[in-house]
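Q: what does this look like with zinc ion bound?
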Amino acid sequence: MSILLKNGSLKGEKNVDILIENDKISKVAPGNSIKDDKAEVLDLTGLIVLPGLVDLHTHLREPGREDAETVATGSAAAARGGFTAVHAMANTLPVADTAGVVEQVWNLGKSIGLVDVYPVGAVTIGLKGENLAELSAMAESTARVRIFSDDGHCVSDPVLMRRALEYVKAFNGVIAQHAQEPRLTKNAQMNESELSGKLGLTGWPAVAEEAIVARDVLLTEHVQSKLHVCHASTAGTVEILRWAKGKKVNVTAEVTPHHLFLSQINCESYDAKFKVNPPLRTDDDINELRKALAEGIIDVVATDHAPHPMEDKEGEWSSAAFGMTGLETALSVVATAMIETKLMTWADVARVMSEKPAEIGQLTEHGRPIAENEIANLCIIDPNASWKVDAKDTHSLSTNNPFHDMTLKSKVIHTIFRGKFSMKSGQVQK
Ligand SMILES: [Zn+2]
């Protein structure tokens, strides 16, 4: 079985033909130069070809909350969004804190076969922040875990954080921190500001994130380990990251599509679809996050796709769950925030949504050059599309997408996973 992609724009730079045979790219040549009578031919004139997208931060909810999402539905949403690899966060029921659970998630991902699912292992047993989980057993399991995170919770105890950073050095692991000082965010509901006072919602100060990022950067330097900062959301965090990178501390960071695009003003609606952890911040924060991403101070975009059933997002703001879905809209939000504004090019998008995340996850078959003999993981985008998001039109089991009714630019049209279409003309190939 072979596929011939004709005259697509490689990362927006030059037009090429790409021949795919079995699971590999067998030939890349100038546009409209390859002929192959046996191949399925697709004309990609006017479309952008990127390496398949890689997400470092996805909540697939299985095992335990199959009413919110399953590995199957999350994989379908990922394929539709142009992803060929996702990292599944550990806050499931049971928690992914043993080799047994990470292997279960790994095997589920493989059996569904729409996207590679790489489990993230918990840092502490039960995400309780008390004792380290079996980090090396997870690293040595068939799931080959390299990223560890208590995401949803912060590893707030500095002694435990130090020990975790030291421990993962043995297998070149990375600790991905959800930076949230728990005592500074007790009952917090939205960004701390004049607006939170006006709305009567408990404030979530920027310093609650920044204090942990600063501490962790210093700990990482002290023990010479690797840190990844989840969902950076403030200008102050960007400043700390800039300082840390200047000092060559081994730290990487992600920003979510929603923190690049939505601000605390959305909270005025009291619509809990805008309730998220960390909270939506100010326009100044958004500007600094965008600049930092373009500059490489923030390394990657990660979705923090966090599905919740309707009943957990309805009703009072204060009792609603934190989180938003995002796999199917991520590329379009990033294109609208970063390409339409001319802050980044398509090659930059390839870097922050595929190449860099694959490097941080130590994936050898994703985020690779689009070249002969590479595994064919590709994402094909219409850069001229303009579309209105309908939260109900989703493969996710949940509809808590905050971009509902907004108009976004660019759209993923096809996804090729290991040489086969996982999504074709908008249709996920089950
Ligand atoms: Zn988090």
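The radius of gyration is 21 Å. The chain has two domains: 2-48+374-383+408-428, 51-360.
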